[in-house]
Amino acid sequence: MDNCLFCRIVKKEIPSSIVYEDDLILGFKDIQPQAPVHVLLIPKVHISSMNEIKEEHGKIIAHLTSVIPQVAEKMGIKDSGYRVVLNCGKDAGQTVFHLHYHILGGKTLETQFG
Ligand code: AMP
Ligand code: ZN
Questions:
Q1: How far is the CA of 89 from the centre of ligand 2 (A)?
Q2: Residues 38, 46, 98, 100: which is the catalytic one?
Q3: Is there a domain that residue 14 lies in?
């Protein structure tokens, strides 16, 4: 999608600090980190939110999810622990409408959910 920020990051039209990449997914550092480690992990294909996930996305979602521990290991937080967040829609505070997991760690995180 031409007007999607994360699609433009996938196409390298907008620079990002990439920490993981393969044919299907991209991981890069959040521009406004909420923790010492804050990585966004996204499918390269445009899926606008959790609400748009269909059965046919099963393989990509499984892959995206299975790469999380690899990213955590690379960022040095696999053993200390980390949080995975996926915001869907207005009330969750989703601001970029291209599906993304937040991977947060590197400190003891707040336990409050909202
Ligand atoms: P969400 O609020 O769940 O939609 O998260 C969107 C995230 O994207 C926020 O944490 C932003 O800081 C992050 N973000 C926005 N623009 C960029 C960018 N150009 N590079 C990296 N992260 C970004
Ligand atoms: Zn997109």
A1: 15
A2: 100
A3: yes
Q: What is the pLDDT of residues 55-64, one digit of tens each?
A: 999 999 999 9
Q: Whose CA is nearest to atom 18 of ligand 1?
A: 31
By most ligand atoms within 8 Å of CB, the mutation choice from 13, 30, 39, 97 for ligand 1 is 30
Full domain range(s) for residue 96 = 5-105
Cα distances (Å, whole numbers) of residue 109 to 20, 70, 78, 104: 23, 20, 14, 8
Structural domain total, the chain: 1
Q: Are 51 and 89 in contact (CB under 8 A)?
A: yes
The model's confidence at residue 28, banded by pLDDT at 50, 70 and 90, is very high
Euclidean distance between CA atoms 101 and 72, whole angstroms: 12
* Per-residue pLDDT, 36: 98
Average pLDDT (85-110) is 97
